[in-house]
Amino acid sequence: MARIVKRDRSSPYPVTIGAETKYICGCGLSKNQPFCDGTHKIAKDEPAAKLCWYDADNVCHAMEDAFPAMPLPAA
Ligand code: FES
Prior knowledge:
- It contains no helices and 4 strands.
- It has a domain at 13-62.
- The chain is mainly β.
- The chain has strands spanning 13-17, 20-24, 52-54, 60-62.
- The site of FE2/S2 (inorganic) cluster has 12 residues, from loops.
């Protein structure tokens, strides 16, 4: 089953345990889940009110009208 999960964060969550800091993916785009692999950089300039999905080549496809009930942040 496929799922659509809304993520509007475009940076990782730093988690420090003892002397070691790990970066947990907050954008959902990492290919090394749950860890950040730097892919979030492709989403950093997205407008807040834009809804898109990313294909295997990390190309954003706009789909603002596909889920009208999904709330988006104001632009
Ligand atoms: S936060 Fe997702 S790849 Fe970095």
